[in-house]
Amino acid sequence: MFFDRPASGEVAVLVHLAMGRECEADDPREFEELVLSAGGDPVAYIMGRRDAPHPGTFVGSGKVEEIAALVHEHDAQVVIFNHTLSPSQERNLERALKCRVLDRTGLILDIFAQRARTHEGKLQVELAQLRHMSTRLVRGWTHLERQKGGIGLRGPGETQLETDRRLLRARIKAIVARLEKVRRQREQGRRSRRRAEVPTVALVGYTNAGKSTLFNGLTTAGVYAADQLFATLDPTLRRLSLPEAGPVILADTVGFISHLPHRLVDAFKATLEETRNADLLLHVVDAASEDRAEQAHQVREVLREIGAEDVPQLEVYNKIDLLALAPRIDRDEAGRPLRAWVSARDGLGLEGLLGAIGELVGDDMVARDLVLAPEQGRLRAALYRLGAVRDERYGSDGAAHVSVRLPRADWERLVANEGAP
Description:
Number of helices: 14
Function: GTPase that associates with the 50S ribosomal subunit and may have a role during protein synthesis or ribosome biogenesis.
Order of helices and strands: EHEHEHEHHHHEHEEHHEHEEEHEHEEH
Strand content: 15-25%
Strand order of the largest sheet: 6-7-5-8-9-11-10
InterPro entries: EFG_III/V (IPR035647), G_HFLX_dom (IPR030394), GTP-bd (IPR006073), GTP-bd_M (IPR032305), GTPase_HflX (IPR016496), GTPase_HflX_N (IPR025121), GTPase_HflX_N_sf (IPR042108), P-loop_NTPase (IPR027417)
CATH superfamily of the largest domain: P-loop containing nucleotide triphosphate hydrolases
Helix content: 40-55%
Distance between the termini: 71 Å
Protein name: GTPase HflX
Pfam families: GTP-bdg_M, GTP-bdg_N, MMR_HSR1
Subunit structure: Monomer. Associates with the 50S ribosomal subunit.
């Protein structure tokens, strides 16, 4: 990027080392799926163990020779590490292997850059990329580290490295300002929904758990859904009407993954606020995955990191069609929905899931059967304006017998302002 590199390609050699007492090496299939999602073609997977990373090359001289042999054998153009490499380690490895070297953060950033569709998503990805790039600038300008003297070589007192750093800082500052404007707009939308007493339900879960497929099944939104990691980057909101709880806003969000780079969490703060400010989280779990317990743990870790661990949750175990299970709702001792078993792809269990969501967000709802005299037309109009009327019929005396269901805050406001019975 900032120095002469061999032209990058798609043939990739993958590397993962277990460090110290770490016995659970990250799932090799997930790492391979990440590379495939980025458009890579994995031809070799090197695994090993070290007590601590080598300060110069992360893997040590023996592994470097082993990787170099595989790069030569397969004519690979990129070596991808399932770890975070320092700028100097990345540079030293590129010199030794004579091909491009990428770490896990760079790989995920590349996938995000491919997936971003909206202006906001592209800004968030660019911010994360620039922050990542700023730590690697020094590698590319080693030949310009010192200001040179002599006739024709004296400059304005700023090296190329300093110039690039200044330009990067200016671009980062501009993007942060634009994202802050997006954040304020999102907050304004959330305030409007809170004033209208419309609850927000956010889908969260490990990447490729089926969130977007479930979102489409519940809302017929037509959001892009694919069997690949990070198919969704840009949040989508849709209004959904529940039979028991009335209207809610359903939000589809970016999937989480183990060791999600902190730069991405920071850059996607505006998007992740939809999760933190939701009234209910639908934690979608891939029921057919052998690693579902660890994946659920990683999602809870990210929720803790963004301050959303205390938001009420309903676990949704998806893909039961792969396990030949029947849809059901598991409940706790108090009878509250705890876990829903569904197949978003086949539409199994979605009605039960909607009912469970309605129970959880409708806890603070008021249901009443009212008898309104003809002179209470103002109160009747207010109930219709709130969308609270479920049924209405007239008696022989002209009174309206009305069944209503509405949020408790709206009911208390009607009692205070309209004298509701």
